[in-house]
């Protein structure tokens, strides 16, 4: 899974963070493909989770600052994912396979970026064109 410019929401700082998340996903994907041991997989998962927490905090702060109307739901979607990661990690400890993990993250992340993140980005660019409008992706 690689970053694709069609994933861009058009806010440079956010797009850069999304790219970084894809890099972490790629690291997990490679570890799974190489059948790396569980501790390696867990290391990459921890890195991804840490970075996602940071990214979610940035987005949620931005949405607070611009008083995005749907910010509560957006924050809840982030929180639910973080809860699911904990569950997923538990399952992985038992089964020690990473395939579901990669599919799960890719699916969640792409859907979230292409729908919810894109919606708030459109709002932010519309409401604050001087700050966020018209930048190359
Ligand atoms: Fe988000
Ligand atoms: Fe995001």
Overall description:
This protein is mostly helical and 137 residues long. The chain has a single domain (10-129), classed as Hemerythrin-like (Four Helix Bundle (Hemerythrin (Met), subunit A), Up-down Bundle). The protein contains five helices and no strands. The longest helix is centred in the C-terminal third of the chain and has 29 residues, at 99-127. The structure holds fe (ii) ion (2 copies). One fe (ii) ion binds next to helix 3 and helix 4.
Keywords summarizing the entry:
137 residues, mainly alpha, Four Helix Bundle (Hemerythrin (Met), subunit A), 5 helices, binds fe (ii) ion
- Amino- and carboxy-terminal Cα gap: 19 Å
The assigned structural class equals mainly alpha
Tally of DSSP helical segments: 5
- Encode the helix/strand succession as letters: HHHHH
Question: Considering the protein shown, what is the CATH homologous superfamily?
Answer: Hemerythrin-like
Number of domains: 1
Shape: elongated
Query: Radius of gyration from the CA trace?
Result: 16 Å
Q: Please state roughly what percent of the residues sit in beta strands, choosing from under 5%, 5-15%, 15-25%, 25-35%, 35-45% or over 45%.
A: under 5%
């Amino acid at each position: 899974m690689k970053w694709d410019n069609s994933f861009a929401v058009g806010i440079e700082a956010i797009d850069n963070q999304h790219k970084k998340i894809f890099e972490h996903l790629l690291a997990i994907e490679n570890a799974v493909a190489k059948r790396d041991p569980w501790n390696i997989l867990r290391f990459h998962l921890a890195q991804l989770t840490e970075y996602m927490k940071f990214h979610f905090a940035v987005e949620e702060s931005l949405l607070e600052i611009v008083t995005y109307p749907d910010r509560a739901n957006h924050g809840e979607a982030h929180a639910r994912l973080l809860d699911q990661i904990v569950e997923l990690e538990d399952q992985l400890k038992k089964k020690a396979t990473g395939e579901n993990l990669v599919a799960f993250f890719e699916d969640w992340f792409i859907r979230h970026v292409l729908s919810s993140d894109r919606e708030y980005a459109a709002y932010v660019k519309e409401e604050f064109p001087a700050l966020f409008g018209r930048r190359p992706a």
